[in-house]
Amino acid sequence: MGGLERSTPKSIVRHSTAGRARDRSGHERAVVEQRLWIGWSFRQAKEEAPAAVRDLFERYSENGAMGVEQLKRFLVEVQSEEEGETTKVEALAIIDSILRDSKHQIRFPKKGGGGGGSLGLDGFFRYLFGEANPPISPSLGVHHDMTAPLSHYFIYTSHNIYLTGNQLNSDCSDVPIIEALKRGV
After folding, report:
1. Residue 69: DSSP 8-state
2. Is 58 helix (H, G, I), strand (E, B) or coil?
3. Average pLDDT in the 37-56 region?
4. What is the pLDDT of residues 79-106, one digit of tens each?
5. Cβ(20)–Cβ(30) below 8 Å
6. What are the start and end residues of every segment in region (Disordered) (predicted)?
7. CA dist 108 to 26, 111, 139, 179, Å?
8. pLDDT of res. 113
9. Is the overall model pTM greater than 0.85, yes or no?
10. Beta pairing, strands 4-22 & 28-44
11. CA separation for the pair 21, 33 (Å, rounded)
12. 42: which DSSP letter?
């Protein structure tokens, strides 16, 4: 991922005050003070696939496109999915979902028609880091026993766990921690 880049100013506030003040020699003078506050917002400079994702894509794609068979092979070999017809159907559903949701995704039509298609690097990247590929399977539900009193658990947190958004301009809250504990993660 790239760094952050500053976007256009989010807000500009001008503030002027007028009054009288004494200079170093003790003479009173009229003073006009102007201040300008600029509130910036930040966004991701580039959203590009990291080297590890590019390497995986190159290994499992053919001619810059990852079709159903290539994605199925990736799901079995890397994601440890059970090999079978379900995996092929799952791969097709993933590709269709990514292509449908991506406005700027290059579509590689399946030879002979009949739907399907292939993912480019961007589509593969979106799949890996999207909702269709959660780090913990939703079928597991709460996968830790969270029935003991809270004091019986060691809770590891970083300083960013309390943030409700990005670390530059978001509020702090205990809600993200509470939600994580409820989910059992």
Report:
1. H
2. helix
3. 70
4. 888 887 778 899 999 999 888 887 544 5
5. yes
6. 1-26
7. 79, 9, 32, 40
8. 39
9. no
10. antiparallel
11. 11
12. E
CB 103 within 8 A of CB 97: no
User: Token match 């440890």: residue?
Assistant: 80
Q: Which two structure tokens, joined as six digits, stand for 99? A: 């292509």
Which residue pairs, CB below 8 angstroms and at least 24 apart, start in 63-70? 64/120, 64/121, 65/108, 65/118, 65/119, 65/120, 66/95, 66/118, 66/119, 66/120, 66/123, 66/124, 67/95, 67/108, 67/110, 67/116, 67/117, 67/118, 68/92, 68/95, 68/116, 70/118
Q: Who wins on pLDDT, 19 or 56? A: 56
Strand positions, DSSP E, 28-116: 28-44
Beta bridge partners of 47: none
* Whether pLDDT at 127 is above 70: yes
- 116-125 mean pLDDT: 87
CA–CA separation, 47 and 2 (whole Å): 7
Could you tell me if 19 and 34 are in contact, meaning their C-beta atoms sit under 8 angstroms apart?
Answer: no
Element (H, E) at 162: none
